[in-house]
Amino acid sequence: MAESHPELHRRYPELAATLPHLRLGSRPRPLTRLDGIGVRNRVWCKDDSGFGDGGWGGNKVRKLEWILPDVEAHRSHRILTVGALGTNWGLATALYARDRGIDTTLALIDQPVDEHVRAQLVRLHESGATVHRTHTKARTIALAPWLFARHGFPYYLPAGGSTPIGTLGYVEAALELAEQVRSGEMPEPAAVVTAVGSGGTAAGLLLGLRLAGLRTRVVAVVVNDTLPLAERDLVGLARGTERLLRSRGARFGPVDLGSGSLIVTRRWLGPGYGHPTAEGTAAARVAADAGLTLDPVYTAKAFAGLLALDEHPMFGDAPIVFVDTYGPR
Ligand SMILES: *Cc1c(COP(=O)(O)O)cnc(C)c1O
């Protein structure tokens, strides 16, 4: 069945044996125009909110499709990872790893606690993950040796799962989008817009769009001030992912990740990670009219950026795509 083969394996058959994939969600994810949104009627949505057949969805599940097989290849039975209190990444990891018999330990730093975060903490508790509240990044780093020893030297994953292997999830999403463009579902978009928390989503999209031969730019709306997420960091992650693909045997020509392919903006960050903004709140209300449920930490701020981009003459009337990365259940 075509559905069980990721685009990466179809495009580079040599990867099927060297880069195992675990299907955790149904694809392709729908691509629909958000009629009535914006001023030019050219805003589309790639709906990754519905990606993931387990108890949580969204962009982190695409990363886990490549990460979990790597954890299993290392014969590891526990993952140690980090995030903030409301971590979508930690929750998705705990739930999907549990389904494979792998335990999860989370070291969580503080973030402003609101309704949204409280609900997430309940879900985290129910996921069965072992949670250490380390409060700050400095304390997490100081406690790292203890955490590793205490949990039997687990498989470590950085915040958001943004390793080159995790980033493959959005190389795959970009190839999927390119297939949808090729089959006539929409014209080639001028840009895709995503929130940036740890960078894997934006970096994967950038690499995948270039591999697919599209000229579509990536607009990266930074919502996190606790990690280095400048253009060079995101391009560096995309390069690392390109190297991974080549090292596993994929054959392709030179990839141009420069030339204004990536636009990184911190304009919608506000006071910092997890702090809601008035612009984000307003954007979430606009999105709700189109049937989208956005979260205050990531997608509301990215959608605020998208609405401003829509009004800007930079891309004329060409379509722009919002990636809905938030997957509550
Ligand atoms: C983690 C997250 C993002 C950001 O993705 P990164 O790959 O970490 O940059 C965007 N939206 C939501 C809802 C997320 O949970």
Automatic annotation (TrEMBL):
Segments forming domain Tryptophan synthase beta chain-like PALP: 24-323
Keywords linked to the UniProt accession: Pyridoxal phosphate
Cofactor or coenzyme needed: pyridoxal 5'-phosphate
Family: Belongs to the ACC deaminase/D-cysteine desulfhydrase family.
Name this polypeptide is given: 1-aminocyclopropane-1-carboxylate deaminase/D-cysteine desulfhydrase
Origin: domain of life: Bacteria
Pfam families for this protein: PALP (PF00291)
Entries under SUPFAM superfamilies matching the protein: Tryptophan synthase beta subunit-like PLP-dependent enzymes
PANTHER family for this protein: 1-AMINOCYCLOPROPANE-1-CARBOXYLATE DEAMINASE-RELATED
Source species of the chain: Rhodococcus gannanensis
